[in-house]
User: Which sequence fits this backbone?
């Protein structure tokens, strides 16, 4: 049963959605928000099978179909498999949310080539491969929504987060360019660039650091995964067809 009410509570009824990295945090919140709007969900994960199944069960409580699919999306074959599994189980996907990613802090001088490559593979190569695999289905139907998760550091750059900032800045440029390429096919491509959100990515920060960030944020708090999911849900709607190539940054006013 859908426990949340919206003015139009099932605007995505019958749509098939893929959310990458949906076993926890922002990805889980996005998957649940799309399910509550009526979409069938493919919950992608890399390692956390039990957590992914928890997301699946939460989606099914919204009276939609949902499955978990394991795939390392930096591998072309596995990215293609994710799209194929969607088609086999539900039909062609209309919504792709590239949420999966990794973060690491540290000096650029201390960053190894292997760490740099790992960051680019997870945050930039994987969305490219997923988009490349899903686009033939969307072009065939002349409809689609691709939503890529970036970060405020992709917009402004973050000290001690050079590889992360570079990868998230890259996904912004990727989204803007792809939006122009596929717009004539009825496909929108947008970026969501969150600010500081209470997820595992902030687990390394002390309570004092978290309080300081909240104080520096004009709305006076950190973000929640649901704050980000509500923006993704909006961009996934059929009625958002005139919004493409944009970067929307739910960050509480931290970056304007």
Assistant:
């Amino acid at each position: 049963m859908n426990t949340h009410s919206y003015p139009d509570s099932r605007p995505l009824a019958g749509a098939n959605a893929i959310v990458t990295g949906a076993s926890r945090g922002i990805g889980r919140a996005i998957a649940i928000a799309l399910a509550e709007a009526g979409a069938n969900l493919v919950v992608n994960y890399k390692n956390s099978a039990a957590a992914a199944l928890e997301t699946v069960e939460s989606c099914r409580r919204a009276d939609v179909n949902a499955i978990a699919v394991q795939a390392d999306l930096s591998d072309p074959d596995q990215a293609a498999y994710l799209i194929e599994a969607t088609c086999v189980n539900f039909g062609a996907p209309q919504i792709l949310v590239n949420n999966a990613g990794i973060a690491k802090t540290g000096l650029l001088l201390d960053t190894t080539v292997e760490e740099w490559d790992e960051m680019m593979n997870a945050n930039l190569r994987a969305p490219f491969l997923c988009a490349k695999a899903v686009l033939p289905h969307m072009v065939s139907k002349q409809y689609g929504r691709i939503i890529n998760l970036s970060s405020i550091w992709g917009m402004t750059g973050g000290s001690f987060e050079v590889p992360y900032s570079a990868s998230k800045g890259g996904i912004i440029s990727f989204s803007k360019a792809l939006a122009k390429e596929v717009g004539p096919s009825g496909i929108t491509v947008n970026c969501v660039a969150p600010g500081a959100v209470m997820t595992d990515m902030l687990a390394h920060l002390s309570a004092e650091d978290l309080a300081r960030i909240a104080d520096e944020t004009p709305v006076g708090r950190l973000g929640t995964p649901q704050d980000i999911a509500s923006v993704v849900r909006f961009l996934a709607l059929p009625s958002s067809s005139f919004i493409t190539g944009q970067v929307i940054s739910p960050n509480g006013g931290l970056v304007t």
